[in-house]
Specification:
This protein is of the alpha/beta class. It contains ten helices and six strands; from the N terminus they run αβααβαβαβαββαααα. The longest helix has 18 residues.
């Protein structure tokens, strides 16, 4: 149903302090999304329009959804999330109907932040195959573009989207007045990983023998989501061992377990 396709969170709880290793991106999101919501007169006075839409792009699990939730939370806005894959519908007109509903709902609930995850599902470069399914996806994208074009940039609804596949996007959605502020969200650096480890063990009873800087150095290529999973798994090892304290050993066991599982699911050549 339509209601199920959208996730509405009137008071998201994620805050900027929960996000580690991407301070520049937090700053950029605050400038592009928070500032126009909380200080619209500034834009009025200076005589510039704030960015219409903010596109977050980068690998999975790096904090893109968190960024959108946090900015909604910190501005007391309703968070309305829609997955791009949900907009790809079987019946003609269903996808565009959902897009219209999305913008209508946001207007009713303003201030609001619309977040379209996996936007590439509806906004990829035109494929060669002219199947009817593609035509329907095209129509949905057209509806999205038309909603954005008819949008008051100085209003109380901000639009954000995310993708892991920036290179696949149709340039039409990146034109001025559409997603005209691009923010790259990369995997964390070693310092970022250390910070994310600290965040995800805040509520854990961690032994003094755990050196986060040293651990972070071992977690090359780990995303924030990978680090969150590692911390949980380390906690599970301590529990299994009947200990109240999580030790370095638990993190190492967790690391090994995750790496083993990874190996088993990786198809050779991929
Ligand atoms: P996807 O592209 O797969 O949708 P995403 O970039 O939107 O991923 P999130 O949903 O924001 O990723 O992150 C998933 C989880 O990983 C978060 O709930 C959080 O626990 C953890 N996480 C990811 N990035 C960070 C970060 N920078 N700081 C702290 N935790 C993070």
């Amino acid at each position: 149903s339509r209601a199920q396709a959208m996730e509405i969170d009137a008071s998201p709880t994620v805050s900027y302090g929960d996000i580690g290793g991407i301070d520049d991106q937090v700053r950029e999101v605050r400038e592009a999304v928070e500032e126009p919501l909380t200080n619209p007169e500034l834009f009025e006075t200076v005589g510039v329009d704030p960015p219409s839409g903010v596109l977050l792009y980068g690998p999975p699990g790096t904090g893109k959804t968190m960024l959108a939730k946090a900015v909604a939370n910190e501005t007391d806005a309703t968070f309305i999330k829609m997955a791009g894959s949900e907009l790809v519908r079987k019946f003609i007109g269903e996808g565009s109907r959902l897009v219209r509903d999305l913008f209508e709902l946001a207007a009713e609930r303003e201030p609001a932040v619309i977040f379209i995850d996996e936007i590439d599902a509806v906004a990829s470069k035109r494929t060669d195959s002219k199947t009817s399914g593609d035509a329907e996806v095209q129509r949905t994208m057209m509806q999205l573009l038309s909603e954005m074009d008819g949008f008051d940039d100085r209003g109380e609804v901000r639009i954000m989207a995310a993708t892991n596949r920036f290179d696949m996007l149709d340039e039409a959605i990146l034109r001025p007045g559409r997603f005209d502020r691009l923010i790259k969200v990369p995997k964390p650096s070693i310092e970022g990983r250390e910070r994310i480890l600290e965040i995800h063990t805040r509520d854990m009873n961690v032994s003094d023998d755990v050196d986060f800087a040293d651990l972070a150095a071992e977690l090359e290529e780990y995303s924030g989501a990978d680090i969150a999973a590692l911390a949980t798994e380390a906690g599970m090892f301590a529990i299994r061992d009947g200990r109240a304290e999580v030790r370095r050993r638990d993190f190492d066991d967790a690391y090994e377990k995750i790496e083993d599982a990874e190996e088993q699911t990786t198809i050779p050549g991929h």
